[in-house]
Amino acid sequence: MKRLILLLIFFTAVVSAQNQNNNSLLQAGPMVGYSQMREVMLWVQTTKPAKVKIVYWDKKNPSQKFETKEYLTSESDAFTAHLIADKVEPGIKYNYALFINGKKVERPYILEFQTQKLWQWREDPPEFSFAVGSCLYINESQYDRPGKPYGSDYEILTSLYDKHPDFMIWLGDNLYFREPDWSSWTGIVKRYTHDRSLPELQPVLGSMHNYAIWDDHDYGSNDADRGFWNKEQTLKAFKLFWANPSYGINGNPGITTFFQWGDVDFFLMDDRYYRTPNDRITGPKTMLGKEQFEWLIDNLVYSKAPFKIIVTGGQVLNPVEKDYLEIYNRYPEEKQKLLNTIKEEGIEGVIFITGDRHHSEVTKLERDGAYPLYDFTISSLTAGVSPGKGEANYLRVPGTLADEHNFAIFTIAGKRKNRILTCTDYDKDGKQIWSISINENELKNKK
Q1: Alpha carbon of 300 to those of 125, 246, 293, 295, 306: distances in Å?
Q2: With a threshold of 0.90, does the pTM exceed it?
Q3: Domains, the chain, with CATH or none
């Protein structure tokens, strides 16, 4: 008996050591990326070369297991891996487990993903919810500016996780390159790795689907534009560390992409790669570039979605004219062209969701002979707050200003042809700040 007990103690110690060693190979993640009816993308980063795979199963049938292909991470790809779960069926919720070098890695939270439902021609579109937020600054004192730390309140990510939305859209400035970072591949990977490894972030990554755009701080230096010389490297890193459905349109580089969830269409725009320098005097000024602009209009015209959600880093509808603000007013001709084209083409259901400003607000533009346009600005998650109280945004919906760290949850509910979008803004502790609802029929053109 004594020998048996000693053997059990020895075996337990060996297993514990193996698990600890295996966990030490995990740098960040796993993260759930895009969701389709036939496949889901998952992501992980290791600390050094390792074989990774995902094992997954239908929550209602846990005895039947499926696996992704095994992938060997490498230094050239920052030890990241993108793994496709392709043995899935529509409308199913799955649990999953991460394996590194053949050993299961335990995580202290539920790992789950879902495939999108096949509802078309069968039933009303499903109800769903998604979170949005921008400006996630993670402190690293030796590289930060001296003085009071710029990042704080990381517990906001736990509050967001506790709302259990179906997916998250990261609205840009999802990390902040510092001076040692943006000019080298080593620095770019260092910043992504450091920030992606934040403990409070892991449950958000692992239990809901994640989509992302970028803004200036995760594209390059402050207010960086199309002239940023190292943008090919930051684009490469963006592709390595996110799991969007695609990157760029019509064979052109960038981060522009599109996805559907339920009956809603999402247009994720690139406001940096083709952006004219703010101080450029000659030539046309553009934020989106001609190709991306026309792609957006073409797909808005094609879309039959009750809500056509355009996601971009900087505010679209804010009317304030200040030359230091990174808003669409810096590009008045293109902004007006976009608004005019939406009206002239009779495009219904347009909603803007934006970040950047370090405060949140809803901007509403009434239009003669057309439905009102809304711009939901949600910022910031942890970066320093820039109060909007003194800013003369005369289009701001009363009661929607949030001068504090915050995030928002959107829900889409209701029967077909009577869908309701509700946006609720929350503080760092998950307490409601404001809420606003819009029926799809309020975004129809007047006959």
Answers
A1: 20, 18, 11, 9, 11
A2: yes
A3: 27-114 (2.60.40.380), 128-443 (3.60.21.70)
